[in-house]
Amino acid sequence: MASRAQRMPTSLRIASSLFVLLWFILAAFPFLWTVWGSFKVELDFFSIADWTNALTGARTEAVYGSPFTTTGYEGAWIQEEFWRNVLNTGIVCFFVVTISLTIGTLGGYALSRSTYNYTFWLLITALIFRAMPPITLVSGYLLPFFEWNVWGILPTTIIVLVAINQPFTLWMLHSFFKNIPSELDESAKVDGCNQFQAFRRVIIPVMWPGVITTGLFSFLLAYNDFAVGAMLLSESNRTMVPAIAAFLGTTQTEGNVMFAVAAVVSATVPLFILVMFFQRQIVGGLTAGAVKG
Amino acid sequence: MRHKTFLWFFLPTGLAMLLFIAMPIVSVVTQSIFAPHPAVLLEVENCTPLIGCTTETTVDQEATAALRAEKPLGRFVGLDIYFNRGHLAIQEIGQIWAANETWGGFFTELGNLPFYRAMAFTLTFVAVVTPLTIVLGLVIALAVNSLHRQLKGLMIFFSLLPMIVTPLIGSLILFWMIDSRGVIGNALVYLAGDPDFSLKASTGLMWVALMVYGVWHAAPFAFVVFYAGLQTLPQDQIEAAQIDGATRWQQVKFVVVPHLMPLVTFVALIQLMDNFKVFEPIIGFSAQAHAQSLSTFIFYDLGGETRQLSSAAATSVMTIFGVAILLSPVLVRTWRDFKGAR
Amino acid sequence: MFLKKIALAGSVAAFAASAGYACEIGARVNIVGNEFAAIQAVAAGAKECTGASVESNLTSEHQTINVAGLSGNPSEYTTAIIANSSVVALMNEDVIRPLNDLVEKYGQDLQPGQLIKIGDNIMAIAFMANAQHLMYRKDILEQAGVEVPTTYEEMLEVAEAIRAQGIMQNPVGGAYASGWNLAQEFNNMFLGYGGSHFKPGTAEPNVNSEAGVNALNMMKALSEYMNPDFLTHDSNATNAEYRAGNVAIMNMWGSRASQQTTTEGVLQEVIDGHAIGAPLTVGGGDIPATTLWWDGWTVGKNISDEEAEATFIAMKHGIRPDMLNDETTPLAVWLIEGYQPGKDAEGVFAAAKMGTPPYPMLPYMGLMHSALGNELADFMQGKESAEQALADVEAAYRAAAIEQGYLQ
Q1: Chain B contacts of A170, Cβ < 8 Å?
Q2: Half-sphere exposure of C89 (CA within 13 A, CB side)
Q3: Residue A3 to residue B235, Cβ atoms within 8 A
Q4: CB distance from B161 to chain C under 8 Å?
Q5: Which of A79, A211, B290, C390 has its CA 20 to 30 A from that of B51?
Q6: Using the beta-carbon criterion (under 8 Å), do B49 and C406 form an inter-chain contact?
Q7: Chains touching A (3+ CB pairs < 8 Å)
Q8: Are C264 and A63 a contacting pair at CB < 8 A?
């Protein structure tokens, strides 16, 4: 990427590489430590007796005769049927991303093309909406949802997540569409298209990078959601993060921390694949999008 | 775009936000100015297994039900809940003000009121974490951008990790690592040279730990946005600056940063808001003894054996106001840009 | 602890079939409750009933959803499994029904102790009990040459002896995490000193008293022998310390007793040395400084009488004496007829025998618990005096109680 003008002096290059290395350690070390620890028993993972136990697996070896064990993974996936939760998360993520992007694209496009004052106020209102703590929103839903008999099922959670996520989606997509020259759709309208046809024929083909980036943020929100899923889903429909929280136990009852750790590590694998697959688009989309704000 | 066309485009998203955010907000505001009816109490005999019976107090359901049926919303209390000790504590402040001659005494006693103590932490958190996140995100973006192409993809993934690992578990794992017997905690004990050194027992160090977590968790978001911005950096401007003999630092200061300014605004907006609502690290680090925020107040109001809905509603409304005040400078700027752009 | 739900259900079903036990219901049953294994077993038992659907939603979030889930007409759930601390929330909202007629009709064989009575009304059927009591390492105590303590004052001496001999630096454990846990430890100590949270017959707070100050000072004295991070240690973290061999003596939940030695990787000396004792008294008092808890089930108010009847039958089937087998017996201290308490249950039974007070089942106790949890940490950190901390508790409680309508 470095053009001639960007070429660095050696000292700066070394400093910069060292910094990247430092950041790599900071960002990845806790995760790699967790991956390593997920193959140990709980006492080693927490290593209260001696911190080197977490590395050597002394207690694990005492129990299983080897410093590594897959009991955490077996417990989570087979005994506790974590795959059901993964499946639910998959469904929730798919629909949240699709619906969120569909209605968000339309709204974001309209906000970017209208020049009336109300577009500004709509954007500000959306921002203020985002300030509302989700936990209060969710506890307000409980009573009506029970009354309408829609509590506990996946569609309700999907719609709530879509709505909560709209302000952020609108802001991202709005700034992205701002960057697509309005001459494009204006000229299509001169050719006799109405606004929607112009949107469909001219804008849709060029909007994908921005949409994919926004979609990834929606995906992450749905993937990592705890507040909504924990309160609005019944036990049988639980998504991953509330299930992981349930592994941890409560004050009066013991949980199984290693199930939770193994589940967390497994939950990160699809994200790894996703980011590696989409990394070009994540960055590319923002490039075309939010730059001019 | 015509109003009618705009309406059709905006309708689906507008409807979703109206139904699931705006209407709940209205109900939350209503809830914050109404409180449950006075309970009619009764003395009864209470029997428990293994124990026997004791005399206890309970709510007289029939009498209370009549009150409820008459006014289902509860009793109107106006702004009482906003002003009570759990929130703005107007009366208590008056007393403290009257009782204290010096500012020092006033502030010490003010720190005893939960709302102001939480505010002290929250505002410090916002003021420290937001700029650090932006600076760190920018430096990472510049550094990663200068890497070899093949390394970039991998580095982007690992840089994103602090953001994508579920905060619930992420903060818990870090919490164990900074324990005085954990791997980081041990390193700190070694560095401090004091075997009794503990991060979790001291308020000051706990604040530092929470803020470090805050920066660590949010830096990837700033990084991704800035990194993308760097991809569209106009090369001609950089070259022109170099021909003018600008140093590297001057290039960053006069070309790169101005180019990224709109993105900085965007990141600042989101970060200010999220940091004001700081929640996960406080719960994950079990730091309630040392730090609180408005979001943890809501969490406790809703999570106790007896749920304090009105109190939680009042705190939520105050959160919205707090965010609005915090964001107002940025919003004024956005308004000017909007007017200018037209 | 996490048993295979399906295997469990299967074994219970097989047991029931062999005993020729039948359960017929005529309307739907839907259970909401916490998710620990004992409750899973009860729900699995209820699900054996045939004739109509029996569903359950067992989640640690049950407390946030049970009021809403029992409201509406008809309500989503027909029964909520609760504890003595949480039943008051359901009674305050008037969403559960008195069970007198159902008990008369179908519950004649329930133990009298299982019936939770508020006045004349039976509001819940209890099936298990819990209490915090002493757990200690007999090997460490022997090594230090001290007797097993029966009072908290003796516990301090034991701790000092262990520390002085250099056996352990922080021998005392305790779930003193700021919030719910810390408040619970205060409740224990406060009741042990003969305190009473409220002025009799009113919702007026009464913790800023001699008993309150004594309780806080005792907690502070104990915390000197705890890990310096004690304000972040909930019961999970405290148990982890115990199993790692860092703690010799602590006050811990009876429901945790069986896992202290069975968790994977526990040190051998902990397994060998682990022992259970009766709860401790304090300040020369004769009742132990702990509280007694029960878990039980209720029947919703906003459902038809047929559903209420079906719910009662199914839930009673879930806690019938036959449900106790090798797998389910160790899960809890059951209040079910024919339960043979094992070694792990000794502490809870000792607590009951000594006249341990139940956790106060008052409409406003939850508010007091929250206020205690939020305001006591300052004192424990030495930032303010005991009197100031207790005055703060009363002020915080008063604000909440006025809001909720318990005080004017």
Answers
A1: 13
A2: 27
A3: yes
A4: no
A5: C390
A6: no
A7: B, C
A8: yes
Note whether C230 and C338 are same-domain residues. Answer: no
Q: What angle do CA A135, B179, C228 make, to 5 degrees?
A: 100
Q: Is B56 on the interface with C (CB under 8 A)?
A: yes
Beta bridge partners of B73: none
Task: Return the CATH class of domain B113-341.
Answer: mainly alpha
pLDDT digits 0-9 by tens, C39-75: 999 999 999 999 999 999 988 888 888 898 998 888 9
What's this model's pTM, rounded to 2 decimal places?
Answer: 0.90
A161 CB neighbour count, 10 Å cutoff: 27
**Beta C29-33 vs C172-173: how paired, if at all?**
unpaired
Chains that touch B (3 or more CB pairs under 8 A): A, C
Contacts of C60 in chain A (CB under 8 A): 245-246, 250
ipTM of the complex: 0.88
- C97, C217: one domain: no
Q: Is A25 on the interface with B (CB under 8 A)?
A: no
Q: What is the DSSP string of B148-208?
A: -HHHHHHHHHHHHHHHHS-HHHHHHHHHHHTSTTSHHHHHHHHHHT-TT--STT-HHHHHH
Q: Measure CB to CB from residue B232 to each of A24, A124, A287 and give the nearest one.
A: A287
For residues B262 and B153, the answer to whether their CB atoms sit within 8 Å is no
Query: Cβ neighbours of residue C329 under 8 Å, at least 6 residues apart?
Result: C339, C340, C342
Task: Name every residue whose Cβ is closer than 8 Å to that of residue C379 and which is 6 or more positions away in sequence.
Answer: C216, C220, C385, C386, C388, C389
Least CB-CB distance to B316: which of A103, A111, A136? Answer: A136
Are C137 and C216 found together in one domain?
A: yes
Indicate if C258 and C331 belong to the same structural domain: no
Alpha helices in C20-145 (DSSP H): 37-46, 62-70, 87-92, 100-106, 138-144
Handedness of CA A65, A70, A71, A74 (dihedral sign): negative
Set of chain C residues whose Cβ sits within 8 Å of the Cβ of A43: 240, 243-244, 263-267
Residue B337 touches chain A, beta carbons under 8 Å: yes
Contact B287, C232 (CB under 8 A): yes
What's the CATH code of the domain at C249?
A: 3.40.190.10
Q: Looking at CA atoms only, how far is residue C255 from chain A in angstroms?
A: 7
- CB-nearest to A31 from B28, B145, B161 is B161
